[in-house]
Amino acid sequence: MTTATASGAAPTRFQRFWLPGLAFKAVVIGGGYATGRELAEFFLPSGPWGGLAAILVATLIFSLVCSVTFLFARLVQAFDYVTFFRRLLGPGWVLFEGAYILFIVLILAVYGAAAGAIGASLLGLPSLVGTAALAAAIVAVVTFGNASVERMFAYVSYLLYAVYALFIVLAFTHFGDRIAAGFERGGPATGWLTGGTIYAGYNLIGAVVVLPVVRHLTSSRDAIVAGIIAGPLATLPALLFFIAMVGFYPEIADATLPSDFLLQQLDIPLFHLLFQLMIFSALLESGASSVHAINERIARAVLNWRGIVLSNRARLAIALSLLIGCMFVADRFGLVALIATGYRALAYVLIAVYVIPVLTLGVWRLTRSKQEQPA
């Protein structure tokens, strides 16, 4: 069966296979990934080779859970996270709702802190200026709904992958000998399984955040392919970034902005500006996708309760309210503390209320549905 898009046309191959993964990548990259802070927190402690193993673990987990999530969402026609968890957990869906609200507050705070740190590092501005600029950009995107958000995923992705590819080329030409020496020194590859699992654990919520774009899938095959692609799309930039970081291991682990540390080693002002623009764009798409998921959740509730479509003005008000509160948290705690403490704790909660249920109850429902289909 082919599902028509909002415009009435059949979904394109891009919408079916690539858009879910690009949207998932948008949530995963966020502030800590794009700045390198998450990589320093969860991958570098395992050493150069252990860090690569941890990235591989995260990639495999991403692909597996995204595939199952997309399959289950299509089976029960759940394209917002509330419907999804009501079908998966029954009355227990409120457990995820609580965890999700905490997640949104935390990641938007991280994005705000990262934007503030970039503004301070690049232009010498007060951190609140960079944070406010990001909030304004997010509001501008999410106010106009699905079409605006999906266009952003495509355009920002082109910029992001191109800049990361150029970055690794420049890194090898400027300090490739240091990178090679870092891998030769190696070090104990310990804790890579735990690091990769914890990192994947809290980031997997991205598979639920992007459910609005899963409506384009036309078959179970689409869901599996889109899920498998999502893992590498999300971790390829991390792999490139991590390889460059190895050249300055272990001292780079203490840098608040490892990206800025490496850019200073390159000492190419124009590329420094381009990379920071890319990070800001990554923060924009990550923050917009998270706020958009909240808007879609409220839009579904308003449609069910009152039979009306959520207006652009209401979307604007919701986004502003959410962002103002979260950015206050960012200004209060800072980037390093938010990632080191908040993400690790949230990972365990999300593994318990989402990952384990979808890989057990979700797979069981999918299997039973397949068995019940007529020959």
* Main sheet characteristics: none
CATH superfamily: Amino acid/polyamine transporter I
* Structure annotation, total helices: 14
The value of Rg in angstroms is 20 Å
> Looking at the chains present, what oligomeric state does this protein adopt?
single chain
Helix content: over 70%
Low-confidence stretches: none
Which CATH top level class fits? Mainly Alpha
- What's the average pLDDT? 83
Indicate the proportion of strand residues.
under 5%
In total, the number of domains comes to: 1
- For the termini, the CA-CA separation is 17 Å
The structure class reads mainly alpha
CATH architecture label? Up-down Bundle
Layout of helices and strands:
Elements: H1 13-35, H2 37-42, H3 47-76, H4 81-89, H5 93-123, H6 127-142, H7 145-185, H8 192-203, H9 206-209, H10 220-245, H11 258-266, H12 269-306, H13 312-333, H14 335-372
Brief descriptors of the model:
single chain; 375 residues; mainly alpha; Amino acid/polyamine transporter I; 14 helices; globular
Question: Please, could you describe this protein's structure?
Answer:
81% of the residues lie in helices and 0% in strands. Helix 7 packs across helix 10. The chain contains 14 helices and no strands. The protein has one domain: Up-down Bundle (Amino acid/polyamine transporter I).
